[in-house]
Amino acid sequence: MSAFKEGFLWGGATAANQYEGAWDVDGKGASVSDHCTNGTHTTPKRITRSFEEGTLYPSREATDFYHHYKEDIALAHEMGFKVFRMSINWTRIFPTGMEDVPNEAGLAFYDKVFDELIKYGIEPLVTISHYEMPYALVEACNGWASRDCITYFMNYCKVIFDRYQNKVKYWLTFNEINSGTTAMGAILSLGTIQGYEGSVMEVPDDLQTNYQALHHQFVASALAVKYAHDNYPQFKMGNMCIFGAMYPLTCHPDDIIECQKEMQKMNWFTADVQVRGAYPYYAKRFFEENNIVIKKEPGDDEILFEGKVDYYTFSYYMSNCVSADEEKNKAGGNLLGGLKNPYLEASDWGWQIDPQGLRYSLNEIYARYQVPLMVVENGLGAFDKLEEDGSIHDEYRIDYLRRHIKEMEEAVKDGVDLMGYTPWGWIDVVSASTGEMAKRYGMVYVDKYDDGTGDLGRKKKDSFFWYKKVIESNGDTL
Hints:
Layout: E1 9-13, H1 16-19, E2 46-47, H2 65-79, E3 83-87, H3 90-93, H4 104-119, E4 123-129, H5 135-141, H6 148-163, E5 170-174, H7 185-190, E6 198-199, H8 207-231, E7 236-242, E8 245-248, H9 253-276, H10 283-289, H11 300-306, E9 311-315, E10 319-322, H12 326-329, E11 345-346, E12 352-353, H13 355-369, E13 373-377, H14 395-414, E14 418-421, E15 444-446, E16 458-460, H15 462-472
Parallel strand pairs: 1-3, 1-14, 3-4, 4-5, 5-7, 7-9, 8-10, 9-13, 13-14
Antiparallel strand pairs: 2-6, 11-12, 15-16
Helix pairs in contact: 2-4, 6-8, 8-11, 13-14
């Protein structure tokens, strides 16, 4: 008997900026991701204001869902997907973000995608803004640093809510909104990079700008949720956060306190605002100590309270250790920051693999918020070898996913209300962090390479057939 409830939403996750391609087709405008070059896990990708001749910008073609959506959705159906997590490309609907009238060709494309999903009985789970801010808004107003973006975002939301009201039930406002608490979030999410060119790892980390921009995203998210609740009661509105489980490196009280502070800053702050509807108590001291002053308009606090999300979703890839000892911190660790845990192994990209951390995270999140949860990203980026006969034997990916699903099952037995699971990049997509194709997550292989070559053909990996059995058995067969 499966621990997962009947109707559990098994599926997979993608994002338009890493998957869709067709970056200038049918009236689409340039997004921030379209200005990002490729990179590797040792050479960071760059962002350029103007396009450099002879430089590869991988999101422009990505793995071309735009021209393969029927084939890809058929593959998702073959695996047995109940839900398909995707995003709408803001610049496909409003090319600069500032237009009064939406781009009909862009709206029509998503109509076709949703109709194809509905044909197979697959629920769309749509992220409204997933790392694809219109680049024109970066140049015009420094992205979310400007309150004007709230108006532009709401124009966008109203158009897509009205257009797809009978086709989409599950929505997420901002992807990994808490990335805005990190330096890279200025490029990925906030768009606060007006005039900046260079490595994505060297963006100036201006805390005042970042947190003011986050406030504008909070208000925009809450307004979108409230508008949906008032006008489309059938919608279920969620948030989406990175969840990086953190452990004290030692049992020294200094490490315990430091870990608690890091958990608050990275994992709890944005979710407390979106789920509980108010800035948390601990933000006051953090703001004071870092000279951050949030400028609010009258009514903002009421908007945040009225725009609380219905469910909480998150990405989970790895955990980190935290120490108050500066000498230990210099030792480095995971690619995404934090210290190495001596009890864990790591992926080819230095991300530590911690399935039990997912059970721990689910319990911590559910205890705090008591709303339904969904794991909307989880997966293993790895080098995949294409055999001469076209097969891809990715036992390492099966092992990773199996171990994480087992821990999700334990969390459900613990009493966590878990809605569904959409592993990241169920089909190969461009890596968001490094801009490369070599770092593959998919259960479907796409013939596309880091020099821009490849015929974009789709091939099923061993994990494809394994995951199909997982879904058929509602998680019983692992």
